[in-house]
Amino acid sequence: MKSWKKMLLSLAISVGLLTSAVPAMAAPQQPAVKVDNQVVQYSLGTPMIDKGTTLVPLRTTLQALDVQLTGAADDTITVVVDGKTITLKGKLKRINGVTYAPIRVVGDAAGYKVSWDAKTRAVLLVSKDTETVQAGGRGFMWEVESNGNTVYLVGSMHIADDSFYPLRPEFEEAFAEADYLGVEIDISKAADEEQQKLIMDLGMYQDGTTLKDHVSSETYAKLGEILKQSGMQPNALDAFKPWVAETTISSLKSVKAGYDASAGIDLYFIQKAIERKVPILELETYESQLGMFDNFSKELQEKNLNTALDNFDVLDESVNQMAEMWKTGNDEQLLEFTNSISGDEEYNKAMLIDRNIGMADKIDGYLKNGKNEEYFIVVGSAHYLGEHGIVKLLKDKGYTVVRK
Fold first, then answer.
1. ∠ at Cα 19 (302, 24), nearest 5°?
2. Are 69 and 188 contained in the same domain?
3. Does residue 132 register a pLDDT over 60?
4. CA–CA dist 127, 131 (Å, integer)
5. How far is 26 from 381, CA to CA, in rounded Å?
6. Same domain assignment for residues 175 and 70
7. In a domain, 14, yes or no
8. 281-320 confidence digits (pLDDT tens)
9. Domain range holding 380?
């Protein structure tokens, strides 16, 4: 089995790290907004991403959409669209005298399709009367019913691009009826001070040593060369442990290939949940995900870093293959990806086996509570299939799991 598949599964599974563990020197710029391919020029304020939601200066954006603003309160916007008065629900923020609103709420009300272009880091608004909507892909979804409760299990691609959207109607219809959204961790909180401190505490050396003191000279030299190729200083990651360096290298390449966590399937539904005020359940925690990587043995951390370095040139092609697998909903390929790490006992146990058990137990609890509720669960696709996958674990508990 090719070693890049193991690295790719790290990308696919460790959503928290992709969005929050990459050091500040690799942080992306704020997004642009395009209306029917025309960039909106903002004289007061600029668009920003806040806790996973893109916020835009309200008045300027509405003018670009040819929508008249008649009123704005704490979480209510009143506009006139095509002569009709519409009241929108969306949390507003006042920053330096400028009122900001979630772009998706505003765009949807004005009759535009809202999507994300990871390559240009732009929010695209396209008039619905001029666009041709094509589903982005089949993806992975299963349904489980018990005691009057329904759980939809959705396999995520944590990094994606605009070609994944719009999702097929079955996803949207199931989410529209959901009482709760369940995710591995709520990555809209990635920029919170508490999470950033946790990353620094776990991901950086605290004893005065540097990365150079903990990996071989060959590994350190390879890392320096890759960083130079990426326009960074060879010693840019010296303060960080090998698992952070591995995640940074992998995410830099995937972003350059056009894939971004901000377009991921889980963040897409987190944004919708925030806008619709659907409660978000976390099946894991930042502490558990980051701690898992930090607890890898020294040997495994350097091995994984070398895998990322040795396969750096083919990673973009590999991510393309995984994206195609998701869009076609190919169960056989997904199972192959999942099984590709089973040969490394330490890695497989931490990344899949132990986490799958924990998530399956929480889903079991949702199904047994007898409250006649619907749960929409979105976790990395690699968690579902195989001998130790969530689907098998739920079947072993007596549930019928139906592929949708």
1. 80
2. no
3. no
4. 6
5. 26
6. no
7. yes
8. 999 998 998 899 999 999 999 999 998 899 888 777 778 8
9. 3-28+137-403
